[in-house]
C-alpha cells in the first residue's frame, strides 16, 4: 500500500468530507463538535480545528459566529467535471473575443458579468485617493522622479509585513514593484524562460497569463485540473517526464476561472517534483486576500524550502485596479527580475506606491478586506442560486471558497462564442470559455464575474443570460 504523505489534519478533513459526500452529514446540519471529533479520532483539538478550517476553505463547512461549524448547503448544481486538455504544448492564439470583452469592461451599458474587476464603488477609493493627493501636495516635486529599480522601500516593507502573517518570509529587498500582476508574470517568465520554451499551466487558466506566454513566444502545456483541488501532482509528474518544461505557472489559490485551491499536501508534492526536475514555479496570488474561510490558504512560496518559487501579487482585486501596482518576489531570481524590469518599464510610478504604502500602514486594509470577503461570498452564493434557476438543464457550476468568479459548464451544444454575441446585443457581458485555453477548449463554458456585487440589474442580467442559453440549447436539440 502506498505510504500516506498527508498531514493528520488533512486525512481527518478527507474523512469528514467523505461523510458529507455520502450524505451521512447532511447540508445545513451542525458538524460534530471539535471535542467529539478529537476524542473519536484520538487526536488533539488543534488537529481537529485545523481539519475544520481546511474544510471551511474548501467550502464544505461554514463557521457561524458563536455557534460553531455547519455542513455547507450543497449547490443545486454539480461541480464542473475535471478537465482533460491535450497533453501537447500549444502556441497561444490571440483572442479577438478577449479584446472585445476588455473593450466592454468599463462600459456601463453592459451588465458587468465579464471582466474580473471589482467595482470602484466597493473599493476604499476615497481614502486611497486622499492619500495620493496628500503625497502629491506635501512633496509632489520631490516625488516627480524615478523610483529605485525595486520600487519604493515603504511599500515593499508593508508587503513583506503582511506576507509574514501567512508564513511567507519575504525580505523587502527581494521584492520588485511592478505594473500589476500582469507585469509581475511577464518579468517572472522572462527571467526563467527562452522563446520557444514550454510552460505548464492549469486548464482552464487566466487568459492574461496565456497572452503573456504568447508575447514571450512561449508554448502552453495545459494540465488536467479539478474544480476543487486544482492540478494533481501525478499529472504534473507525467508531464515533466514526457517533455522539457521551462517553468510552471499556478494559482496560489482560487484559480481564475475555476476557483480551485490545491490542498497543502498537493502543493508540497508539486514543489518536490519541480525541485527534482529543477523547474521554477511562478505562482499567481492575486485572489489570496479574498478567502471566504477563516484563514488565507498558504501560497507555495510559504511552503518552499528550496527557494524555487517566484511569487506574483497585486492590489488589483482588492483595492486599486486603476493604480496598476503589483509585485514579484524571489531571492534566487532577483537579478534576472531586476534586469527584466529595467528593460520593460524601468520603474513603477512613485505616487501610487506611496499612497498604497500609507494605506497599508494606516491599518484600514483588514477591515476593508473583511467587508469585501463577506460581500463577494454573498454575491457568489446568490449568483449560483440565480444560475440554478435560470440556466438550462445539464449546467454545472464551480463552488469557489474565495475570489469573485464562477465557472459554468453548459450543455455541450451551447457555443458560448455565439452566446457572447447574442448577450452583447442585449447589453450583457460575460467571459466566453475559449479565452481560458491556449488550445481553444471550453467552447461550451463561460465565466461570470461577481466583482460588482449583487443587485437587481445583475439578477436580471443573469436571468436573461440563462434564458438565452436555454433557447440556444433547445434550438440545437431541435436542429439535431
Ligand atoms: C489570475 C489573475 N492574475 C493576474 C491578473 C492581472 O492582475 P493585474 O491587474 O494586477 O495586472 C488577473 C486579472 O484579472 C487575474 O485574474
Automatic annotation (TrEMBL):
InterPro entries recorded: Aminotransferase_I/II_large, HTH_trans_reg/aminotransferase, PyrdxlP-dep_Trfase, PyrdxlP-dep_Trfase_major, PyrdxlP-dep_Trfase_small, Tscrpt_reg_HTH_GntR, WH-like_DNA-bd_sf, WH_DNA-bd_sf
UniProt-recorded Gene Ontology molecular function terms: transaminase activity
CDD domains registered for this protein in UniProt: AAT_like, WHTH_GntR
This protein's UniProt keywords: Aminotransferase, DNA-binding, Pyridoxal phosphate, Transcription, Transcription regulation, Transferase
Record-annotated HTH gntR-type domain positions: 6-74
This protein's record includes keyword Membrane: no
Name of the featured protein: PLP-dependent aminotransferase family protein
Taxonomic source organism: Pseudaquabacterium terrae
